[in-house]
């Protein structure tokens, strides 16, 4: 990496610089924020290390000024701070500082931070390549024709559609007891992307959207795919419904004798049940902060320990998360780990609310009416039904 080190302490700055040079990085040194601003070039520096307490300009002010420069929001910044300055460092997180290290700085912490940033840049590059691959892929839509037997309710088929075809987007398929209709370009693109994510189980997926927008249905789509014989487990957890003191044992399970009141033989967790399949973590933004580091290890290392256990357990599962809030805002508020956010943000899907795709409202309503009529064994001619101008408008409470 090309790294800029800003510190008025010559001894500290030179020792860190020498250590990073030995690791093979290109280093530029500055003794204050003013000279650092003159050196700053967004297309050159990958990372900036800066002390907080410096003459002429503090590290916090340096961060603020860099963020206002062209390309300044893309540069990773790590601050050095004393124990008495941790409040300032936490405040700096709101300006997009990647992390802060407590002085005296341990070189192992520096190396670890650089490794995380390198990994983040690699993940970001993979994400860009994946998006480019999707944009250049041939246009496809989902067909309601089953892949296997008609009785298989988890099947759907991907079919090619010519771009010259002028018919509106229309596709219906079922997963379990649920039926999904696709009647607009936005949703078609979402499910095309989801079908590509289904092909690679190593890509973590983050699904964002308002409550009721269909996040779990998309997650199930990513899991089951077009394989009519897919018997891999799909395990869902609502992170908002589990108390913080029970979350770890619920997710990882616990070993025999781990705590008072536990089963003598211990108990497997949701990760054990989801092995070889998918674990769906709904409302991931509500996951306890201390649990986020442990989930990050599961994603990175594919292993974990049960509560009170000494044996490392290997796992092979796909992780899909969903949230009805913007995780970026939680990261800025220091309520969600930035490194976990970057890990989950590799395969990101945003589902717009129905009010943002009004062209789907009538087709969806017709689909549901047809299904209800079929269950009730009634004949329904939707095209013949028109609202009567003589009928009064009936209104009710907003839903």
Offer a few descriptive terms.
18 strands; Rossmann fold; 5-stranded parallel sheet; 20% strand; 2 domains; alpha/beta; 399 residues
Main beta sheet strand tally, sense and closure: 5 strands, parallel
CATH topology of the largest domain: Rossmann fold
The CATH class designation of the largest domain is Alpha Beta
The SS-based structural class is alpha/beta
Please name the fourth-level CATH homologous superfamily of the largest domain.
Answer: P-loop containing nucleotide triphosphate hydrolases
Explain what this protein looks like in three dimensions.
The chain folds into two domains: 103 residues, Response regulator (Rossmann fold, 3-Layer(aba) Sandwich); 220 residues, P-loop containing nucleotide triphosphate hydrolases (Rossmann fold), CATH 3.40.50. It has 399 residues and is of the alpha/beta class. The longest helix has 30 residues. The protein contains 13 helices and 18 strands. It is 37% helix and 20% strand. Helix 3 links the parallel strand 3 and strand 4. Strands 2-1-3-4-5 form a five-stranded parallel β-sheet, with helices on both faces.
Give the SSE layout.
Layout: E1 2-6, H1 10-22, E2 26-30, H2 33-39, E3 47-51, H3 59-68, E4 76-81, H4 86-93, E5 99-102, H5 107-136, E6 140-143, E7 157-160, E8 171-175, E9 178-182, H6 185-198, E10 205-209, H7 215-224, E11 234-238, H8 244-252, E12 253-254, E13 267-268, H9 270-273, E14 278-282, H10 289-301, E15 303-305, E16 312-314, E17 318-323, H11 327-332, H12 338-344, E18 347-351, H13 361-375
Parallel strand pairs: 1-2, 1-3, 3-4, 4-5, 10-17, 10-18, 11-14, 14-17
Antiparallel strand pairs: 6-7, 8-9, 12-13, 15-16
């Amino acid at each position: 990496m090309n790294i800029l080190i800003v510190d008025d302490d010559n001894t500290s700055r030179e020792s860190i610089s020498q250590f990073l040079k030995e690791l093979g990085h290109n280093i530029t040194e500055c003794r204050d924020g003013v000279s650092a601003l003159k050196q700053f070039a967004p297309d050159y520096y990958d990372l900036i290390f800066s002390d907080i307490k410096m003459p002429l300009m503090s590290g916090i002010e340096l961060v603020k000024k860099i963020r206002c420069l062209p390309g300044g929001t893309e540069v990773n910044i790590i601050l050095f701070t004393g124990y008495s300055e941790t409040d300032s460092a936490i405040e700096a997180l709101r300006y997009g500082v990647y992390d802060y290290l407590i002085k005296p700085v341990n070189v192992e912490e520096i190396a670890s931070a650089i490794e995380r940033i390198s990994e983040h840049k690699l993940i970001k590059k993979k994400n860009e390549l994946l998006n480019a691959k999707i944009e250049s892929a041939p246009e496809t839509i989902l067909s309601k024709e089953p892949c296997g037997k008609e009785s298989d309710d988890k099947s759907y088929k991907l079919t090619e559609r010519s771009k010259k075809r002028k018919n509106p987007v229309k596709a219906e398929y079922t997963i379990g007891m649920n039926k999904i209709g696709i009647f607009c370009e936005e949703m078609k693109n979402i499910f095309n992307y989801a079908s590509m994510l289904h092909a690679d189980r190593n890509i973590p997926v983050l699904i964002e959207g308002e409550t009721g927008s269909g996040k779990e249905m998309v997650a199930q789509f990513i899991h089951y795919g077009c394989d009519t014989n897919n018997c891999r487990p799909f395990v869902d957890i609502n992170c908002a419904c589990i108390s913080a003191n029970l979350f770890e044992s619920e997710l990882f399970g616990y070993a025999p004798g781990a705590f008072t009141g536990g089963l003598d033989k211990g108990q497997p967790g949701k990760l054990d049940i989801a092995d070889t399949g998918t674990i769906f973590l709904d409302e991931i933004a509500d996951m306890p902060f201390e649990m986020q580091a442990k989930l990050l290890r599961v994603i990175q290392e594919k292993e974990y320990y049960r509560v009170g256990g000494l044996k490392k357990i290997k796992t092979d599962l796909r992780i899909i998360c969903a949230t009805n809030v913007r995780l970026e805002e939680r990261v800025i508020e220091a309520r969600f780990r930035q490194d976990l956010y970057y890990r989950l943000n590799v395969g990101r899907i945003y589902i717009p609310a129905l009010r943002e795709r009004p062209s789907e409202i009538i087709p969806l309503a017709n689909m549901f009416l047809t299904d209800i009529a079929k269950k009730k064994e009634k004949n329904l001619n939707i095209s013949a039904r028109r609202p009567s101008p003589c009928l009064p408008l009936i209104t009710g409470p907003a839903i």
